[in-house]
Write a structure and sequence with these properties.
Low-confidence stretches: 12-32
Order of helices and strands: HHHHHHHH
Strand content: under 5%
Number of helices: 8
């Protein structure tokens, strides 16, 4: 259990340092850039684009979260694919760690933890980056019709593709042959997609 916690904490540290963003320098940049200036900081640019933050002053720290959010947005601007891959790695690692610690009754399965974390990094983050950017370019807007269309495309088309890749990955990692993988996909794909719906 100690090893799993150390590994989980280490993955968080590695992923945050891999963004190559110095929080201190981004805070200084935010303070030195005047609002509305041509050379607006990444935080200012990110908040001006987002409908969630248009009415909010990004320079007011609320609960200490904004400096970290600024660094994350800066990383998304500078290295979007790597940032999303690392975000996915941390998400899958956290999800599996929490599931194993609080839901599972067996000992912590380090192989499962590493397998799922790596899947988040190698496939989930990068594929999501390309798919959702493509989807946003084809279905623009945030009104109810656009959101419904995006969710429908995601669930009807993307979910089965994603689940097929996921089952294939798990089968390959487990050493299963093509027949076993195809049988697993046939047996569990519809149920997995229903769980997503």
């Amino acid at each position: 259990m100690k090893a799993a916690c150390i590994l989980f904490a280490s993955s968080l540290v590695v992923s945050t340092t891999a963004f190559a963003v110095n929080a201190h320098s981004s805070q200084i940049q935010m303070l030195q850039t005047t609002p509305g200036a041509a050379g607006a900081s990444p935080l200012r640019r990110a908040t001006q684009k987002s409908p969630l933050f248009k009415s909010r002053d990004p320079f007011i720290v609320r609960g200490g979260a904004v400096p970290g959010w600024a660094a994350y947005n800066e990383a998304l601007d500078e290295k979007p694919l790597l940032t999303k891959a690392l975000t996915s790695l941390v998400g899958w690692a956290a999800g599996d760690a929490l599931a194993q610690i609080f839901i599972g009754s067996a000992a912590f399965d380090l192989t499962r933890f590493l397998t799922l974390s790596f899947f988040g990094f190698i496939y989930h983050g990068p594929s999501g980056h390309y798919f959702y950017n493509w989807l946003d370019s084809k279905v623009q807007g945030t009104d109810a019709k656009a959101v419904f269309t995006k969710v429908a495309i995601d669930q009807v088309f993307w979910c089965p593709i994603f689940m097929t890749v996921f089952f294939t990955y798990l089968g390959l990692v487990a050493g299963d042959g093509p027949t076993a993988i195809v049988n697993k996909v046939k047996a569990d794909l519809f149920t997995a997609c229903q769980g997503s719906w």
